Amino acid sequence: MEVRESVRIHGQLRDPRSPAGKASLYYKLPKVHPMRGRKIRHSTTFALGLLIGAFVALVFNIAGSLTVMQSTMVSSYVGIRLFRGFFIVFLHIILMGINVYGWRRAGVNHVLVFQVNPRDNLNYQSLMTVGMGLLVLWAVSAVGYIYAPLFGASQIQFPALMGTVVFIFTFIPMSQPSSIMIMSSRRWMIRHFFRCITAPFHRVRFADFWFADQMTSLAVVWLDFSYFVCFFTLDA
């Protein structure tokens, strides 16, 4: 019975007149090379490579410095809670870029599935560049957090500065420079975030469900963000 059911479903998917076949055609594109589609600039590729190199160097710096500066740092628990949530989110953006690469490679029309602006959307390299740039910001803030006691500076100003930059980058309605601010993608993220919060009051679409699933998977991030806000509003 299972074999017959599989054959029947496969036949429906291949039949363009059936509902399943129409849906399959609706959400599929011909297989294309991932470099095709929206043109990828050489400057984006160069920036991605440069940011990867900078992040690797900063990570080695952080790893080597932690053993030396441990005695002069604020509680390691505080540092982990202030930086962990941002790191997970930035890494998630890079992994989304890898997902987009896979979807593009498999011919999945992710632009249509997720209701993204077909004329202005990020390719996989742009997503990875944004995520890697934010990771470099995170690493620079972590280095400043570690070395702040040597210069008589407050350690907590570095995660505060990082959070401020991320907030501005996410919510300030600036569209220029377009290669950095990426207004359409930020608007898509904010719109679906609020649609997830207000889900009981309107029809939930697939993109909303998918976005809510991502937020559910990042439960530890919400705990760290709540700690971040409480720390700077009550304890700092």
TrEMBL record:
Chief location: membrane
Keyword line: Membrane, Transmembrane, Transmembrane helix
Gene Ontology CC entries for this record: Golgi apparatus; plasma membrane
Domain of life: Eukaryota
InterPro entries: EXS_C
Domain EXS: 81-232
Name of one Pfam family that matches: EXS
Residues that span the membrane, as ranges: 45-63, 83-103, 124-148, 160-183
Compartments, record wording: Membrane
GO biological process, one term: cellular response to phosphate starvation
Membrane topology annotation: Multi-pass membrane protein
GO MF terms held by the record: inositol hexakisphosphate binding
Keyword flag Aminoacyl-tRNA synthetase: no
Name of the protein in its database record: EXS domain-containing protein
Organism: Plectus sambesii
Source species taxonomy: Eukaryota, Metazoa, Ecdysozoa, Nematoda, Chromadorea
